[in-house]
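so i finally got all the pieces together for this one. its two components total, 656 residues if u count the protein bits. some of the lines might not be protein, just check the labels. i wanna see the whole assembly predicted at once instead of chain by chain like last time, that was a mess tbh
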Amino acid sequence: MTQDVSVRMASPRSRYAEITQEVVGIPLDYRRWRNWWILFGIALALLLLFFISAGVLFWNGVGVWGLNIPVNWGIAISNYVWWLGIGHAGTLISAMLLLLNQPWRNALNRFAEAMTLFAVTCAGLYPILHLGRPWRFYWMAPYPNTMNVWPQFRSPLTWDFFAVLTYLTVSVLFWYIGTVPDLAASRDRARPRFWQVFYGLLALGWRGSAIHWARWRQAYRLTAAIAVPLVISVHSEISLLFAAGPIPGWNSTVFPPYFVLGAAFSGFAVVSMIAVVLRRAFHLQNLVTSRHLDLLGKLVLATGMMTAYGYVIEVYATYYGGERYEMETLWDRFTGVYAFSYWAAVACNFLPLQLLWLRGARTSPVLLFLISLSVAVGMWFERYMLIVTSLYKDYLPSSWGLYDVSVWEWTLYAGTMGVFFVPFLLLIRLLPMISAFEVKETLYESRAQDRPSAAPPGMEGSSNHA
Amino acid sequence: MREPRSSHETSNGLYGVMAEFKSPEDLTQAVRQARECGYRHLDAFTPFPVEGLAEEIGFADRRVPLATLTGGIFGAALGYGMQVYTNLDYSLNVGGRPIVAPTAFMLITFELLVLFAVLFGIGTMFILNRLPRLHHPLFGADRFDTASLDRFFLVIFSNDERFDVRRTQDFLWGLGPERVQGVPLTGAPE
């Protein structure tokens, strides 16, 4: 078997083989140990910080945070929305663009989906940590109990439990069945016994049978078709956590679409950042091409402008409604104690974004990264603004109060970065991070369109497979 | 379509005969010719999904979409039923609002619809594909590891009515493959 492989390597390799070698070779023949260990060390330190912060929180209770009674949802909940919003872009890139037959997504979907998994995990931790008695989080589940009570199914807080768990489960399954064929390719390329067994178990015995592919495609496309409305339902539901309450600045029917678009906006920005870093770190320029960056830039720009429209409509609807407390809250956002968060959101979200109208900015990795970073920060400010400016002054002056983020909230937030990056780095190290078989499928289909005159596919050099 | 699953179904202890091709077109062409020649128990193996290939083999299975639909209906019924039952079982009167409140119940109904549709669909896909499994006769075949790289394989199973080792091999050679080999049923792991 081993000689056979070496013989095959010597012969001119097809483009199909090159793609697989390039993708599968990253975990199998890992070269960038030093940088990986530096990053992994930082991520592990952050993860440790997460456990310390969570430990301090469990020991002392939510009093170690800056929460108080008007502002009882601090950055715990704004970070929850932020992480979940980032997660949604992975599903949208993967599922929506699959259904719209946009094959360029194939170079991006795998790590975008991985991003979804870990972002949703970070998000899901926050409401539990915020509970005060987190060890009773299972009270959200409907199970027969000696207290003879059930969850309150008419409350968005109970909807949240179902929405996030469903979303996490569906994301894991969608990512996993999309990875199985590449795990099989890794199994077939692996030489050391350990890795053959490791990938062999994960690949579940996949062998590329046409019948298997046909059923796989049915299941994969159907899951994608269901995942798109799922994303919209989940983030609409998140917005109802706010919109279903009588708080000025929250009680608005604009919220569901506004939240969904904002989520897609921040998520596409983070996908762009990850794409820029990965293609530079692993020299993937011929898989994640500048055309991909261009298209990602357009997605960020489009969703960003839609989010900007949401900002405008929010102001317009408040003035059109003319309700006094709503107007007060809006005015507090512009000029109040927390006005910095409103203007930081507007500035970070929409000013650098305008550069993306230029092709040069979209295809420049550095600029795209910086603009996306600005969007990620801006969207964080937006969630902060939405929560704090609405809560700190509502109806009665006697119940107004200020909120200051405590050290332990900041450390917990930094810690969730560790919760995100530790598994993400492990995934990059261990599993194929680009969908090799889908890139090959795209290559084949684009060649099939260019024919009839061309040479048999798979036997020439590079080609525009994006 | 159907592969041999035990030694009673085989001839000469063979799982089948395998031909290797360089391109999806050659493979699709070969599958078509094998079907025209009367072979019914065959399968193709490719590194990526090739549009229309399974249909050439005679694949017309709609059980995965059906299972997804069933799962969706089951999940929606479960979600809605659970909320109605629990609310009737322990009625929480909040400001005189209806105990059974369809608008408020729709979100969880939808989430469970999605959850069960996906679980049923993907579960059925794995069950019908007889996955996961640890070993398979084909993994013992020479060069079959390239089926996940850049080669395309046609296998005619030994439980086909028209299967005859020599004649089937000759037939496969006639299709212009890179190579042809017999695959024993129990390829032991290396």
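Chain B has five helices and four strands.
The mean pLDDT of chain B is 90.
anyway lmk what u think
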